[in-house]
Design goal:
alpha+beta, 7 strands, about 30% helix
């Protein structure tokens, strides 16, 4: 199954999508969330969230991204990791997209859009039919990306307090 997911991610980057010019060499690969470079991308995403919103009440364990219920992808361009993001199990049909991060000097090129597409493909291949995510008020660019990718508003799915201002879902079609 992992080989199929890697092939899907490769195919996603072999063509062009609106807003993704110049990314013909971007490839996504599964990476263990407890090893490099995934660990550094997860930490960078968490550090960025802490800068924006303060320290979280609890940490997301890296093991939540482990297959078969989760996964973490790294986007490589010319052998250099420039993006990462993953998904965790929410329930039997739903995965949650978590910790998407693009290195600052690569932002604005459509990398996040391709990363989102690759994660959605991995979620679908893992057997989930629905995906959810959230983002906060200090990340309007992320909310705009998610809305443009077909995510619709849903109620807060977090139990208890949440720093988010947008909670979204997308029903995944078949490939």
């Amino acid at each position: 199954m992992i080989a199929r997911l890697v092939e899907i991610a490769r195919l996603l980057c072999s063509g062009s999508s609106p807003g993704t010019m110049g990314l013909m060499h971007l490839q996504f690969q599964f990476s263990s969330p407890t090893e490099e470079p995934s660990n550094s991308f997860i930490q960078a995403a968490e550090d960025h969230l802490t800068e924006l919103y303060g320290a979280p009440d609890s940490a997301l364990p890296r093991e939540a991204f482990l297959p078969p219920e989760g996964g973490f992808l790294i986007g490589w361009e010319h052998g250099v990791p420039i993006a990462g993001g993953g998904f965790t199990r929410h329930d039997s049909i739903t995965a949650e997209i978590r910790r998407m991060y693009v290195v600052p000097h690569e932002r604005g090129r459509g990398v996040a859009r391709l990363l989102l597409i690759a994660i959605e493909s991995a979620v679908r291949a893992a057997g989930y039919s629905r995906v959810i995510l959230d983002t906060g008020p200090k990340q309007p660019h992320a909310e705009a990306l998610y809305r443009s990718a077909g995510y619709v508003d849903i109620a807060n799915f977090r139990k208890g307090k949440s720093r988010a201002s947008f909670w979204g879902e997308k029903i995944l079609g078949q490939t």
